[in-house]
Design a protein that fits this description.
Length: 812
């Protein structure tokens, strides 16, 4: 009776389970219907009911039947749990429910056999029965899903093929493909699912290599490891077929192919090309069907669908690769920029920075990223306002720029801007403009000196003319028969005029007007000479002068007199800086070679120069001394002389640590030049034409030269000079020498010379120019191109006589 009751209960359970599945399908009808109850509740019911009922002490027969019934119900619940959330179509659900029913029946019979055998052996107490029932139920729950899946798959493979599993596989691939960036795992998953679902023996996926001419295997299933490394060149039939085949091609096999790289004959393989924009990007190779050998039309369509999904994944992977490559290129460009750049968020935290910024700041990335930007770079209120949250009225902000003195040595130019008007991110561009600012300062200094030089040139020219007459006539009067007191007064006048001339020469030196006399100069010897001449006077004032000369210092082409003037000016400047210092006072001069140059440094231990004045010390008329203690031209003259030599001069100073002036000169050497033969003063009588617009200077020249036996003709400008020259030549009395001023009204000296050379070429070398203006580029170019002698104003009587004698000797 008990066995019959159990059998009836099992049969009823099978029918009940089948009806349950059909009812759920009829009720839901959609493949996305959720489970009727949570999985945990089902598990609790499946485990709890038999454990509870097993403890009830009933008669053996009734207890046996009740336990079988309860356990069968629990097994049915466990079988229901293996159903997926997506309910399958009705045909497949029926096949699966048949599998679940058979497994349920098998589990029930197994349990019945175990309990029956145990009770025949000896009675089982309530506690033991509870334990046995629990273990059996747990075991059934553990093995049931795997057994059910295997059994269902076995049934599906032996029944006509269903489109559900294939469609589900395509759906899974379609969901996974957009998120795949590496094609190898996607291809492996497709091959795995395809071979399992469609019962295909083997499969392989290959992609074109970077050349677009060869195929390289990416993933394979059901083949040897050698096949997974397969490669087909451009001459292989498979490669040729892919390059020539079209979408409507029916032939998907290669009957003439040979096995290669661990692959079987391709005449049994089904070729599924993967195309992107009608261009082949890869290929799937599938072996024959495991059961029938040939693939059905439905299965072939499924493989084509999978190929389309793979093509979408290829496009996605390529797009991601392009984005990744663009990002790498952007990062490389970002890091390769010479300007420091960093980006920060609304809270001011640095999000990204390049290598140039880390190098400029002298910090590592770890010390920059994540820190507030204003702790890395000090900023003023304008920069902080730029980086504040966007304005509520939506007004656009432009970029703000400011200079920052970094570590007392470098100048950083910082530009701050937003990525967009409503963006919360700010970009800072940091550029080291130390050299640029220095060049700008030098350019401004040069322009300032040029402007002042032009002004001083005009002043000097106007002063040179009266000084020439004062010096000349005073010297002439000294030779006359005058009382001694008058002669003494004339000497005083001459001395003061010459002093004024020296002042004018200083102005011309500041204006870089003088012509440099370049020779090979031993700088060490020149410095030693200056020190020996100045040391006694400095020692008398309590200033120690020390010298440190580098014996390897090379000679250079320079004007020794001008360099001596620079050294004397710098020594005088250092002496004045130490004048009021009560402690030890010393000046140290050091020479040292530099690549392609040499340096002279003059340092003192005085109060130093304030940092904000370092860039102004070379400005004309700028001085830190008290009124009456300096003109402000000394350092400007030094600057002009050094610059004319192609060098640099700068000041270094720290407060209360003295000042150091550094001169850097390029090392240059001159070729050998033949010595100029000495000329003797010629005293023979000459006919001289004087073309000078200053009547007093013309009169002075006449007073100096006529007593020496020379015959003079005078003209007030170039046009009168041409007329006088034409008249003299017409009479057969061409001048032996033409003394002409460079700067004259109407027709100036160069214009007059050009007309003479054109009309009287024989007189081209009979010129002596006098001028008080040699700063103008046109004057310098004219004198250098003609190589004619010239005499600077103001000149003395002796200088005029010697110049006329040398010019006469040159013409002869």
């Amino acid at each position: 009776m008990g066995a019959a009751t159990g059998a009836v209960a099992c049969l009823a359970l099978v029918l009940l389970w089948y009806a349950f599945v059909a009812l759920v399908i009829a009720w839901g009808g959609q493949p996305t219907l959720p489970r009727p109850a949570p999985s945990l509740a089902l598990i609790a019911a499946a485990l709890g009911i038999p454990l509870l009922t097993a403890g009830i002490r009933l008669t053996p027969a009734s207890s046996y039947s009740l336990e079988i019934t309860v356990l069968s119900a629990a097994t049915a619940l466990a079988a229901h749990m293996v159903l997926h959330r997506d309910l399958p179509p009705l045909p497949l659900a029926r096949r699966r429910s048949l599998g679940y029913a058979l497994i349920t029946l098998l589990a029930t019979l197994l349990y019945a056999a175990l309990v029956s055998g145990a009770r025949q052996a000896r009675p089982v107490p309530g506690a033991g029965l509870i334990l046995a029932a629990g273990l059996v139920v747990i075991g059934v729950l553990l093995v049931l899903p795997g057994l059910t899946d295997r059994f269902t798959l076995w049934i599906e493979r032996r029944l006509p093929p269903s489109g559900y599993a294939a469609r589900r596989m395509v759906q899974e691939v379609a969901v996974a493909a957009p998120a795949v960036l590496d094609l190898e795992p996607l291809a492996a998953m497709i091959l795995e699912r395809t071979l399992q679902t469609l019962d295909i023996r083997w499969g392989l996926f290959a992609l074109w290599d970077h050349t677009g001419r060869s195929l390289q295997a990416v993933a394979a299933r059901g083949l040897s490891e050698e096949a997974q490394q397969a490669q087909w060149g451009p001459e292989h039939p498979l490669t040729q077929w892919l390059l020539t085949a079209h979408e409507d091609t029916r032939a998907r096999c290669l009957p003439d192919s040979q096995p290669s790289a661990g692959l079987p004959h391709l005449d049994t393989a089904w070729i599924v090309p993967v195309r992107l924009h009608e261009e082949p990007v890869g290929v799937f190779l599938y072996g024959p069907h495991g059961k029938s050998g040939a693939l059905s039309a439905t299965e072939r369509n499924i493989l084509d669908l999978l190929a389309n999904e793979t093509a979408a994944a290829v496009a996605n992977a390529r797009l991601f690769d392009q984005v990744a490559r663009a990002r790498r290129e952007w990062l490389q460009t970002f890091d390769a920029l010479s300007d420091g750049i960093f980006l920060h968020d609304r809270q001011g935290r640095v999000l990204r920075a390049n290598r140039a910024l880390a190098r400029l700041m002298g910090r590592s990335f770890e010390q920059i990223i994540g820190r507030p930007w204003f702790e890395i770079i000090p900023a003023g209120p304008e920069a902080r306002a730029m980086c504040a949250p966007p304005l509520e009225n939506g007004q656009a902000r432009g970029a703000t720029e400011y200079d920052l003195r970094w570590e007392g040595q470098r100048t950083l130019h910082i530009t701050v801007s937003r990525l967009s008007d409503d963006d919360e991110f700010c970009v800072h561009v940091v550029r080291d403009v130390t050299d640029e600012r220095a060049l700008q300062g030098q350019l401004a200094q040069a322009e300032k000196l040029a402007a002042i030089g032009q002004m001083l040139s005009g002043i000097a020219h106007e002063l040179n003319n009266p000084l020439t007459t004062i010096i000349g006539f005073s010297e002439l009067l000294q030779d006359a028969n005058v009382p001694d007191e008058v002669r003494a007064d004339l000497e005083r006048i001459s001395r003061q005029a010459k002093r004024s001339a020296r002042i004018v020469q200083g102005l011309l030196a500041f204006a870089r007007q003088g012509q440099m006399q370049l020779t090979e100069v031993d700088v060490n010897a020149l410095v030693t000479q200056v020190v020996e001449s100045e040391q006694p006077r400095l020692q008398a004032r309590g200033i120690a002068l020390t010298l440190q000369l580098d014996p390897s210092l090379p000679c250079t082409l320079a004007d020794a007199g001008q360099l001596q003037q620079v050294l004397l000016n710098l020594l005088a400047n250092a002496e004045q800086a130490l004048a009021e210092q009560q402690s030890e006072r010393c000046i140290h001069i050091r020479t040292q070679p530099s690549p392609g140059a040499l340096r002279i440094a003059i340092a003192d231990n005085g109060p130093g120069i304030p940092r904000h004045l370092l860039q102004r010390v070379f400005d004309p008329f700028f001085t830190t001394k008290t009124v009456g203690k300096g003109t402000g031209l000394g350092l400007s003259i030094c600057y002009g002389i050094v610059r004319e030599h192609g060098g640099r001069i700068w000041a270094e100073s720290e407060p209360e640590q003295g000042a150091t002036f550094v001169i850097e000169l390029p090392v240059r050497h001159a070729g050998t030049t033949p010595p100029v033969p000495a000329t003797t003063r010629r005293s023979e009588r000459r006919r001289i034409l004087v073309v000078e617009d200053e009547t007093l200077i013309a009169a002075l020249i006449r007073r100096v030269l006529e007593p020496a036996g020379h015959e003079l003709l005078t003209a007030a400008d170039g046009e009168q000079g041409l007329a006088a020259l034409a008249q003299a030549c017409a009479q057969g009395h061409a001048p032996d020498l033409i003394v002409a001023d460079l700067k004259m009204p109407k027709l100036d000296g160069p214009g007059f010379y050009a007309r003479v050379v054109r009309d009287y070429p024989a007189l081209a070398q009979r010129f002596l120019f006098i001028t008080g203006d040699t700063i103008r580029p046109e004057s310098q170019t004219f004198l250098q191109s003609t190589r004619l002698p010239y005499l600077r104003k103001p000149f003395t009587v002796q200088e005029l006589q010697e110049a006329v004698a040398k010019a006469g000797a040159r013409e002869a």
